[in-house]
Amino acid sequence: MARMIKDLILSNNLLLLILGIAGLIITLLIFQIATKRNFGLAFEKWFAILYIFISPHVNIPPFNYLHFVNVTETDGSAISQLPFVFYPWIVFVLCGRFITFFKNQLVEGLSFLLMRNPCFSLYCLLPIISPLWSLVPDITLRAEMAFSGFTIVGFYVGARYEWRELSGLVRWSYTLIGIVSVLRYPNVGREFSGITSHKNSLGSIMVVSTALWYLHYSQNAKTQKERWIALLFMLFSFYLVRATSSGGSLVNSLMLIVVVSSLSFLSKLKFQWAFTFIVGFMAFGTIASVYILDNLESIVVGGLGKDLTLTGRTEFWPQLIAAANQRPWLGYGFDGFFQQDLIGAQTPAYFIYTPNGFQPRTAHNGAISILLAFGYPGLTLILVSLVTNLIFAVRELSRSPLAQAGIPIIYLVFIILNNLTEGSLSDIGDAWLAYVLVTVRLSIDSAKSASTANRSYGRELPYDLHSD
Questions:
Q1: Has this prediction a pTM greater than 0.85?
Q2: 157-174 CB burial, b ≥16 within 10 A, e <16
């Protein structure tokens, strides 16, 4: 039906003209409304919710056409170029807010990001320059354009909103994905994927949604009504985690619930002990996940619901690492390795199979995906960036209310655990957007905290000298 409507519109010049004029009038009207401060802020927040909503590659029109990943399409269709129209339109409509941001926050946000997490900034350069060494430079160039646009919008949202607002935007966006999924596919059964491309994708989103709603319920809800709403959506999100039949998502969800329950305890510890606890917990979670993945399929089948996508990962990971070691310094470029259909035997991915004949199209592991794309330098940069963010996040536990400080902890623990069996951190999707939001916000907050501490020290120092 949608295709018929699209063909009808594109084949009728008069209809195209009428729609163009109507679009221009609507654009000017929205522009005038958005110049009002309150309306502009509301419109910007709705755009942020929409952007987070489409980030996991939802498959319902017209939202699936708005994702930056459409830029990577090579079919040349007009609909795949929609991001080149939609995002400039957003910039025009919200130009007043963007101008204010450029004047007051852009330079500060970029400088804080460069100073506090330089490895993240260097890592973001790798996709941009990787067409120089990619096996498929034209594909990598398109992927680089999509990555750059996707990351720039993520930077804007992360720099624009504080933790409390970001949490609300993410919670409602992810919950909306769950609600629309159930409305569109009301017969929720095993291996439910909803409006996402795969059940693991929906499971990952609902894992984060469960943890954020639990954090809101336990730390931030002010009224009884708000607590009941938070509890309702937490249980709804957890129900969808279970409906996906993803054992990995269920394990990650339970681990994040433990993390959120431990925040009050962690905030009372000294930094080194809190950091050790978080690192130890993630190490335990990683070992437990590997153990379940490789040795306890009967437990997964009987207790958690069999997750067939786990099967075979440990069989082709060594082959992928061997392929990465053929180009250890640069890798194969962004989105340049799994191109068997395009260049065949020119990529080592063409020869990678499991004993049962399965040929992977992704690495199903974040570290290996990055290693294949950018070599060991790229992997080193992202690992150092992760550790840096984890240090900042643990410090925030003693500086900020737990309702805010718990958000980066939730995301970082989830990203690390999730990327054990998924390559989400190297994709242009919800996990990378979340990492951009967390990195930008932590860099800004840690820089401001350091600046405040230095000013306080400067005020106290003359008094101390005088006392001596």
A1: yes
A2: bbbbbebeebbbbbbbbb
